[in-house]
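Here is a tokenized protein:
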Amino acid sequence: MASMDGQVALVTGGARGIGLAISSRLASRGVKVAVGYSHGADTAKQFAADHEGATIHQGNIGVAADCERVIEEVFDQQGRLDILVNNAGITIDRTVRKMSVEDWDRVIHVNLSGAFYLSRAVLQHMLDNGYGRIINISSVIGEKGNVGQANYAAAKSGLFGLTNSLALETARKGITVNSVAPGFIATEMVQGMPEEALQRVIGQIPVGRLGEPDEIARVVEFLADPESGYITGEVYGINGGLYM
């Protein structure tokens, strides 16, 4: 793989779960990581203390003004931004019949609109630089749907359309845009499921286990690499065979 020393990556939700694994793996390649977070300040601060050149940025990615401020902060503190990983997301699970408009809007704003806000805010810089990597973390739920997760599924599915459209718009500009669609990964959110429900999910996964956060981070690292410039507009499913 090509050197990534000196590059800068913003990883939203980068202080916990899959985001922390992505932040750590990119940092191991010499990337200066800007960790975006809304909660988990202690973990974000610890990451910055452990990784030279790392910075931390708090904000709500469901709010356009917060996204624009965070991008400005990254440029002020890092001087550049080469890689954007739109990872942060939330769930508010209810069936459609019981889901409020507020539940729908909040998940759409954070999980889908946030990726648009941040991509738009960084895009002119990447175009001027003739280089960029944008990686959207979607979900297997965006591909297959799930009971009680219509808002989450719609947002994660929407990331595929955003990815493809932005990939087409930037393909000749040195910028790649791709999606990664994890399945059920061993994070706090998944492991917090009731044991019976968790075992039922694992029983549906052909490889017979949950995925590990670093298995997602490995693919993100690959897509972020300078040598991956001929890959754009793709979806990488990492789900243990749950959705083929």
Remarks:
- Strands lie at 8-12, 32-37, 55-58, 83-86, 132-137, 175-182, 235-238.
- The longest strand covers residues 175-182.
- Residues 8-183+214-233 form a domain with the Rossmann fold fold (CATH 3.40.50.720).
- The CA atoms of residues 21 and 214 lie 5 Å apart.
